[in-house]
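In this supplementary section we document a worked example of the pipeline. Step one takes a protein sequence of length 369 as its only input; no multiple sequence alignment statistics are reported here. Step two produces a three-dimensional model, which step three serialises into structure tokens for compact storage. The input and output of this example are shown verbatim.
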Amino acid sequence: MIIKKVKLHHLNMTMKNSFVTSFGSIQEKPFLLVEVMDESGNTGWGESTAFHAPWYNEETFQTNLHIIKDFLIPLLLNRNINHPDEVSAIFSPIRKNNMAKAAIEGAVWDLYAKRNSLPLSQALGGTFKNIEVGVSIGLQKSSDELISVVKNYVQAGYKRIKVKIKPGSDISLISALREAFPELPLMADANSAYTLDDIEIFRQLDQYNLLMIEQPLGYDDIVDHSKLQREIKTPICLDESILSLEDVKKAIELGSAKVINIKISRVGGLTEAKKIHDYCLEKNIPVWCGGMLEAGIGRAHNIALASLPNFTFPGDTSSSSRYWEEDIITPEVVAKDGYITVPTGYGIGYEPNLESIKKFTENLWEFKA
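The serialised model returned by step three reads:
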């Protein structure tokens, strides 16, 4: 396939509720949708998940726009690509900028699957027909309010609950949840808010039978996590520290984590995400698919990835209605009794809702070969 045209759609969308973590509160979210077109007029879609500020990692919406427009699109236009795995090599002269790379690589994967009359899940090697889904809940004003929110999601059938913690909102919060929900599959996400000086907090958290604690220490750390994991029983899950398969290999060798969170955008695309999945499967390290407050196109890519066999923990890919009054795909993503059915349509299996996309669009750029 030859990439003859690329469109970039700049959208702004408002979440139903603000999402609060240790690094800030988010309600307005910019999106960059990437639409690629081949020589026959077939199209594929990808989505940048970068925020407007460099909270999660160093990338932002504006840096993604710059990198995609000025570096990645020129590398891709008029290029004959036999398989999306080639995109990683094409982009290799550009260091890091994984979210930018993932957005355009995801569009190529969608295009490839459509051209070959395959669901994206099948093109990736997925086997699950339905995926278990959990939900990620931001910091609330009180433990009582958090318990109420959790109760609603438990009643809706979500298979796993993830709650955010930070210094001062950790042990008492988890204790209250465990008292209210003794058997609930529960995990805590620290978003790098702690250091090894806080090791006693994690020893105390051991008593609450958590599935895992996600990224408790530095966002770029692997070494200190290995020290912490030796001191606690609760599995550590690495998120922000994992940018590539090489990072996974180092983390497993050091004993830094017993679980890996795979986010497509964080690792630079579906090709690298699949490599990480395959390696973890070989090493008996379970993985799960994390979320980045995606709109529908990014959510669809997550569903396809989570159909691979080693995604043994429920991911963060909940219903569209959990976040948005109106999503940008048809049909919207729906979780029923804690499961999402993996779509069987070609490509991502959902149609971009062009009317909704136009409604939320602030800018549009078009590049031709």
